Amino acid sequence: MGKWTRRGFIAAGVVSGGALMVGVGIREGHRAPKLAKMMTEDGETLVNVWVKLNTDNTITAIVPHSEMGQGVFTSMTQMLADEMDADWNKVTYEQAPAHEAYANYPLGREFLMGDTKVPGMVQDSLNGGFLRIAQSMGLQITGGSTAVRFTGMGGMRIAGAAAREMIVKAAAKTWDVPAKELHTENSHVYHDASGRSEPYAAFAEQAGEYAPPTQPKLKTPDEFKLMGKSLARFDIPAKTDGTAEFGIDVDLPGMKYAAVMGPPVLGAEAEQVDETYAAEMPGVIKVLNKGWFVAVVADSYWQAENAVRQLDVTWSKTGAESLGQSDIYAMLGKAIDDAGGKGKKDISVGNARRAADGAARVYEAEYRVPFLAHAAMEPINATAWVREGKVDFWSGLQNPLAVRDEIAGAFSIKKHDVTVHNVMLGGGFGRRSEADYPLMSVEIAREFDHPVKMIWSREQDTQQDFYRPASISRFKAGLDDDGMPVSWENTFVQKHDPPEASHIPYKIDHQLIQHTEAEHHVRFGPWRAVDHTQHGFFIESFIDELADQAGLDGYAYRRKLLEHSPRYLAVLDAAAEAAGWGRDMPEGRGLGIALVDSFGTVVAQVVEVDVTGPEPKVVHVWCAADPGYVMNPDGFTAQIESGIIYGLTAALYGNITIEAGAVVQSNFHDYPMLRMRDAPGITVKLINSGAKVGGGGEPGTPPIAPALANAVFAATGVRVRSQPIANYKQGLT
Amino acid sequence: MAETKLIVNGNERSVDVDPSMPLLWVLREQLKLNGTKFGCGIAQCGACTVHLDGMPVRSCSTPVAAADGAEITTIEGVGNDDGTRHAVQAAWIEHQVPQCGYCQSGQIMSAVALLRDNPDPTDEDIDAAMSGNICRCGAYGRIRAAIKTAARA
Ligand code: FES
Ligand code: FES
After folding, report:
1. Over pLDDT 70: what percentage of chain A?
2. Smallest Cβ distance to B131: which of A237, A248, A677?
3. Once rounded to an integer, what is the mean pLDDT over residues A549-574?
4. Residue of higher predicted confidence among A3 and B45
5. Across residues A546-560, what is the average pLDDT?
6. Does residue A240 form part of some domain?
7. Helix or strand or coil: residue A312?
């Protein structure tokens, strides 16, 4: 497998008592843009992955990610354990803390080693910088489908392989035999010629004397024993008996409860709060007006929530009070008009304009998508305890270290006086990468000397989100006599991440892809698969329209445009074949196909839709996915299934709308979710193409909306150019 | 405030709370049984599902007074008397159902109630019994498969 960054290093050492630790880090001075903001001080050294070989021969992987259902504790540990030739039954994990405990020498020592002295455990090149370990490569961020492809490939595997090499070296010295006569298995070293074998732990102390190998040899896929296997997830048993601890379950001595209300028109401030009635309600301890939100603290959450709903709040006027959803769409459309075909360029190859002018004909279409809330199952919540200028903080976070820093910055507290405690996330989808609710929770708790648990109602969760942005995208294609595209011009509004989301997989010689921005008050944030969900719908709908213009079906047309890429073709073919593409469809049914490459994983989906009922019903989804290599097939499949249902919910129903400047929807009755009775069967085919390893959490989401829209077209002849797709029955397309 | 007697997972418990306080918050905050989850508060998502005298109910919308003297079973008490997992819980592990896991206490409580009344449910029976439970992680296919496995257990 590939080399890793030359600025990376491996650190190792043995702690007194005999446990060996190996970590992978980034050298001082590493200043990748994403990384720089994670560094708390100049000269800080970042270390991200650790393995601890304990004296009882158990192995602990220290995982710098949050568990939000993607099985990250298991897949990370699996990658490390495989390279280490570890006994899987004796491997456990710990989640790395987001704290100076991981970034500060004495506290780091305490976390990693207990109360022991640190021997010469630091590689020369570290210059002691290791002792201020923090966070690396944004790797404590859980999102962007980063875990397996970055932490796992670039950290876990290397740490495991390095640890194994050092142990082998130590065994060779101890037994006075050549290292090449030794082999490892199940956390033991074997010397067949002499019949000797010892557990790894027997060599830990000796191994700790060595500088770790700078380029440990990684296994090739044919040598994998654990990678590629559907190992059961560590976190599942506790999620079947109520013992898994989520943020909302945090319980502390003397804890009180807060309910909050944010401004209905995002950005407004509470000017006046009439608490006459609320303050007298049972259990109420205090009413707080913090401007950007109001809160009630009470003996129980229910009392606090009842009281906050009785507050009479006068919110400031922001100028957005008159805005409705159609105004916002009009603003987006106008932004594209105003750009006048001269937006900021994403891609410009050939000359799309001239090619269109010379084409046999041109074809144009416009698409749009609405705002979407995340609606994680666990409503937003956080618990804070502010004591003697220090903050203890508990909450499900996708980016705990950044939140620690935000809290420290906002309240002028030293970073190492903010402790973020890890808990499980009841879903994240991007929402739990924002710092608003952590700051809110601390702002409330610092009024008290006891801990306060803040819980948002579902209504707050829905109306105070950072939404997937509404967007409009316009296309113009020049077509040759056969209807094949000679040019592709696309202008869209609202560009965020990742930058390549608007790129197309198809071979078209002349391309001009550009964007513009439109300012409005509805705040946005990353939503599962980020911009790929919008562009997946836009691009894969338009290409389907072009197929129709050419008189071809969507599968055949895509095939022609993907001949340059065997990888894409293989994924497309696998999905089409699984679905039985081309078979006769009964009246009222249709098949639609779409392909999206996101986060390094190529996914094609075929949807079978039934339009005979009051709403389109997805009967089945066939999905093919190529993430390069699948580390944990069952876990990966589960994430793809999840991505499909998440995307399908949005495609069918998702519609956050603005009226009088405020979000209209409030709870699951008016922001509906796909339920069991509407859940399609899902077939997932996995492809190990050997390409660079891609992500799993997000790539399942983008293709489903266009595949559905294309299926609706196949079934009805109606082209649905906007979401939610269920609306097409009311004539809204 | 009023004294309310509850029999929770076989143990008699007495709480002194507003009779209109939802059972959900009594379980979580007074009795420290945090396995039952809050998702919506308006009987839309099923995360708060518990059994009240054997019937699955949405505890977020059940005033504690309505549970006075009743037998309540929560996720913490759904296992077998000998301490082993209920067949539904075991099937949940076998099928690796949970993702984030937040909805799963409610899902399991609904599934246990379904199988008690209907040991061999059809797909339509599963749809009817389980459609009150939202899973934002989209584990529906696995839930369906696990229910069928548990039915055979
Ligand atoms: S919390 Fe009770 S049904 Fe959602
Ligand atoms: S497992 Fe996450 S909501 Fe169901």
Report:
1. 85
2. A677
3. 98
4. B45
5. 98
6. no
7. strand
Q: Which atom of ligand 2 is least distant from the CA of B138?
A: 4
Cβ contacts of A240 on chain B, cutoff 8 Å:
85, 89, 92-93, 97-98, 104, 108
Write out chain A residues lying below 8 Å of B37, CB-based.
246, 248, 377-378, 426
Question: Which pLDDT band, with edges at 50, 70 and 90, does B132 fall under?
Answer: very high
Q: What's the predicted TM-score (pTM) here?
A: 0.91
What is the dihedral angle through the alpha carbons of A256, A261, A266, A268, rounded to the nearest 10 degrees? -100
Ligand nearest to the CA of B134: 2
A5 CA: distance to closest CA in chain B (Å): 33
CB-CB neighbours of A222 under 10 Å: 5
Query: What domain count does chain A have?
Result: 3
CATH code for the domain of A273: 3.30.365.10
- For A712-723, the pLDDT digits (tens) are 999 999 999 999
Both tokens of A122, joined, read 């630091």
Arch. (CATH architecture) of B87-152? Orthogonal Bundle (1.10)
Across the interface, of B29, B96, B103, the residue whose CB is closest to A233 is B96
Q: E strands within A611-650? A: 617-626
Assess whether A409 and A531 both reside in one domain. Answer: no
Residues A442 and A492 both lie in one domain: no
Which atom of ligand 1 approaches the CA of B60 most closely?
A: 2
User: Which ranges of A176-218 would DSSP assign to H, the alpha helix?
Assistant: 204-207
pLDDT in tens, A562-620: 999 999 999 999 999 999 999 999 999 999 999 999 989 999 999 999 999 999 999 99
For residue A654, the enclosing domain spans: 341-371+467-730
- CA B139 – CA A38 distance, rounded (Å): 34
d(CA A560, CA A390): 62
Identity of the residue numbered A672: P
B26: β partners: none
Q: Are residues A546 and A586 in the same domain?
A: yes
Inside any domain, residue A162: yes
- Sort out which chain B residues have CB atoms less than 8 A from A282's CB and list them: 1, 18
Nearest CA distance, A238 vs chain B (angstrom): 9
Band (A655; pLDDT cuts 50, 70, 90): very high
Q: What is the ipTM of this complex?
A: 0.98
Q: Which atom of ligand 1 is nearest to the CA of B134?
A: 4
In this predicted structure, the answer to whether residue A652 has a pLDDT above a threshold of 90 is: yes
The verdict on A525 and A597 lying in the same domain is: yes
Query: Domain-by-domain residue ranges, chain B?
Result: 2-77, 87-152
- Ligand 2 centre to CA of A110 (Å) is 35
In this prediction, residue A464 has a pLDDT band, given cuts at 50, 70 and 90, of very high
pLDDT of residue A99: 40
pLDDT tens by residue, A165-220: 989 999 999 999 999 999 999 999 999 999 999 999 999 888 877 877 767 899 99
Give tens-digit pLDDT for A19-56: 676 765 544 433 343 333 333 333 333 344 578 888 88
Count Cβ atoms within 10 A of the Cβ of residue A26 and give its class: 0-12 exposed, 13-18 middle, 19 or more buried: buried
* Residue A116's pLDDT band (cuts 50, 70, 90): very low
Q: For residue B20, what pLDDT is reported? A: 97
Neighbours of A32 (CB within 10 A): 13
The CA distance from A128 to A651, in Å, is 52
Report yes or no: A504 and A512 within 8 Å, Cβ to Cβ: no
Domain boundary (A208, A224, A240) is at A224
- Does the residue A597 lie in any domain? yes
Q: Tokens for A120? A: 């010469």
The helix/strand count (H/E) of chain B reads as 5, 5
What CATH number does domain B2-77 carry, 3.40.350.10, 3.10.20.30, 3.30.565.10, 1.10.620.20?
3.10.20.30
Could you tell me which residues are beta bridge partners of residue A296?
A259, A287
When CB atoms are compared, the residue of B76, B79, B136 closest to A376 is: B136
